[in-house]
Amino acid sequence: MATTTTRTNPLSYLTDQLNELKQKGTYFKLRVLDDEQAPVCTFDGKKVINLASNNYLGLTTHPKLREAALEATKKYGVGSGAVRTIAGTMKLHMELEEKIARFKNVEACVVFQSGFTANAGTVSALLGKEDFIVSDELNHASIIDGARLSRAKIKVFRHKDAAHAEELLHEIKNESGRKLVITDGVFSMDGDIGALPQLTELAEKYGAIMMVDDAHASGVLGRNGRGTVDHFKLHGRVDVQVGTLSKAIGALGGYVCGTRDLIEFLYHRGRPFLFSTSHPPSVAATCIAAFDVLEQEPERIEQLWDNTRYWKKELGALGFNIGGVNTPASETPITPIIVGDGRLIMDFSRELFKEGVMGTGIAFPTVPEGKARIRTIMTATHTKDDLDQALDVLKRVGKRMGILG
After folding, report:
1. Active site residue 399
2. Which of 77, 269, 313, 371 has the maximum number of C-beta atoms within 10 A of its C-beta?
3. Is the pLDDT reported for residue 2 higher than 70?
């Protein structure tokens, strides 16, 4: 007769770790959006002013993008049915890549399923264990993961400290491996702009590959949102440009721009490209329409920056720490409200939500211990009334919780 044994749950340690998060006050539940991603929308049944979205230009609901998605679905169906290298490269995918390449003034472009896979897949494809990566300490997690996957030797320089980056490059200048210098164009937690001009000069001086992740600069900086390479007039000097289709472009995906040989190589060695089904036709068509809007409606970017300047001025006047005090100063529509304590920031976020403002609390490990914050992001579609109402709530709740004096 068989005996039964009580099986011990091998995942019980996860429950312990979740309980630890609850004790620290940094446990959270996902907020669920009930309607459109918009400046004022409904989460969990409550109407709120949305300060948490990456929808910089309001393109998630643009009529031309909606129309493009519907038309492509009717014409081509809902999916591509395969990875790009087997049977999943549609004419729309090629049209999108050609459009981005022209927009970015480069030879070629390849689209990935997300900005994360674009970074991780590219870094891990370009380098191997004999090579070196010189990386800003605040670079995005996708860059860090790509660097680890490459098995290259990783050298981390202090944030935006070009002199420190040069020290590291000088240390390895006689090593035989390839060198890659990499930075975010805009840093996602503090909103400051990377030291791209100085790092590009260093890459040229030491014969290194120069790479920038322009996720939060795409659609925000440069002419018509062409990014930091255009912003700093560095065309032809940055070897690998990564961008996103998931933020200002309003849809989903990431892309890599550079020489034709770079893109052909990624066709053969970029693992996310090789092993993930390609974008549905509706997404590719949406992104094509979005780049048309960038060219045809530059007033959206102007309004984004008008809102950004107003928001920073008014938040600072209220007395919030919005960066620049032991943290980098924001230079973009990303404006953090830094409180420090993880438990306090989560409580602050919940109280703001109760009073009609969606400002997500961000704590360790996304940001360092002691640097917890509400990350606010402006969009072109926020009205001045939206911003003034949000400022009133922030002031009232901030004073009540002792965050403001």
Report:
1. no
2. 371
3. no
